[in-house]
Amino acid sequence: MTDSPEDQSGTIRFGWEEWVSLPDLGLPALRAKVDTGARTSALHAFDIETFGSSSAPKVRFTVHPVPGREDLVIPCSARIIDRRTVTSSNGESEMRYVIASTIRVGDESWRIELTLTDRSSMASRMLLGREALKDHITIVATDRFQQPRLSWDVYNTARVTAAAPNRSLRIAVLSREDNYSTRRLVEEGEKRGHTVEVIDTQRCYMQINALTPEVHYDGKRLPRYDAVIPRVGASITSYGTAVIRQFETIGTFCLNGSEGITASRDKLYAHQLMARHKIGMPNTAFAASPKDTLSLMRLVGTAPLIVKLLESTQGKGVVLAETKKAAESVIDAFRGLKANFLVQDFVKEAAGEDIRCLVVGGKVVAAMKRKGAEGDFRSNLHRGGHASVVRISKEERESALRAARAFRLNLAGVDLLRSEAGPKVLEVNSSPGLEGIETATGKNVAEKVFEHLESKVRPTPVRRRIKTENEE
Hints:
Among the domains are: 12-162, Acid Proteases (Cathepsin D, subunit A, domain 1, Beta Barrel), CATH 2.40.70.10; 170-264, 3-Layer(aba) Sandwich (Rossmann fold), CATH 3.40.50; 283-346, 2-Layer Sandwich (Dna Ligase, domain 1). The chain is of the alpha+beta class. It is elongated. The protein has 10 helices and 28 strands. The model is unreliable at 460-472 (pLDDT under 50). The chain has a 7-stranded mixed sheet with strand order 2-3-11-4-10-9-8, with no helix packed on it. Strands 26-25-24-27-28 form a 5-stranded antiparallel sheet, sandwiched between helices. A 4-stranded parallel sheet has the order 14-13-18-19, sandwiched between helices. The chain has helices spanning 159-162, 180-191, 237-250, 258-265, 267-276, 293-300, 324-336, 394-406, 435-441, 445-457, and strands spanning 12-15, 17-22, 27-34, 41-44, 46-51, 58-63, 74-79, 82-87, 93-105, 108-117, 126-128, 137-140, 170-174, 195-199, 204-207, 214-217, 220-221, 227-230, 253-254, 284-286, 305-309, 318-321, 341-345, 353-360, 363-371, 386-389, 411-419, 422-429. GO terms for molecular function: ATP binding; metal ion binding; ribosomal S6-glutamic acid ligase activity. It holds the Pfam family RimK. Its cofactor is Mg(2+); Mn(2+). Keywords: ATP-binding, Ligase, Magnesium, Manganese, Metal-binding, Nucleotide-binding, Protein biosynthesis, Ribonucleoprotein, Ribosomal protein. This is Probable alpha-L-glutamate ligase.
């Protein structure tokens, strides 16, 4: 017998155990037992869960590729091609999902079928059955490792992450509305091979305990999602953020966290947070029940002034008081209603225009200029304003990024004004709409959202060194 894994006739020699890789599943090194007595190959898998449509069902599962290393977990997903009963050597039968994957051994690669089952009690994480063995493979039953040997060390490096396939994800969009933004997220996610489910936030309820926290929906426990995209309306902020906190407790990645959403919806806290991070904004004053209206106005400056309800959204509850007398009347009226409000100076040079910067994953991916309808100082698109693409300055870009970081938001719509003193941030929106900015800029913002999600939930290799066994 020569030392070559392939003889002159082109026959490949396999021992009773070989090193293989499954690149489609992001598994660069596995030790497989070769068993010609088994028909179908099998892969060790746990947390097996189906998802996707009935016409194209998928399965997701996780793998411990290294025996004895329960802390090293590689998430995988694949399309289901069959479900069949497999009988083991001890006579026990089990219904298993069947998937297909490319196998690579040395310089050779080909497609095989694999059943998914728990092999945690087995020495080999994979079994190579006779259907996976090509015609020109000869089995040397008395020896091991006739093919090139691999190493567990590959799981210590960034190479395993770089080589990982685009794993199909199961994603929930928390939304009560069938609007453009929700539809675009579903459309873009499915185009990228993911399963995206829209969940009505108010129909979620929670089991809260230390050991098994869960989120339930319509009488059933919700499945394990790879990520959650919150689209929580302002009217249900309190309950919506409670649901997001529950997902965070479970360990699900949330595109925007509960703390950031809460801070962005509380206009008083939001301005205090921006002030703490030294982010430029209009001069702002607040008091619960000032005895002297004039004193409150003097903290901000001279008329014209903006008086803004803390609960205002989409420009509602925002009033421009052009004179000192008008400002006093508006403040007195709000106070009479026992409403909480802010008073801000009016940036005249903005001329009824503001800039919306869309930040995704620490990058400004799109920006538009919004101008209010004729005679309206508010630039909200919901109030008849119109939008156009705009080129922002380095200072404006940095202001938007700093604001998103201050609120710890991975997706944020940062609204700012162009003033003589530089950009002034008006608001940080944790649930920005996609229609206006995609239409105005022609950019695929939903795609950027999924690119960020995919980068955050990609399997991360264990950095601790794995000791290579002494092989015979």
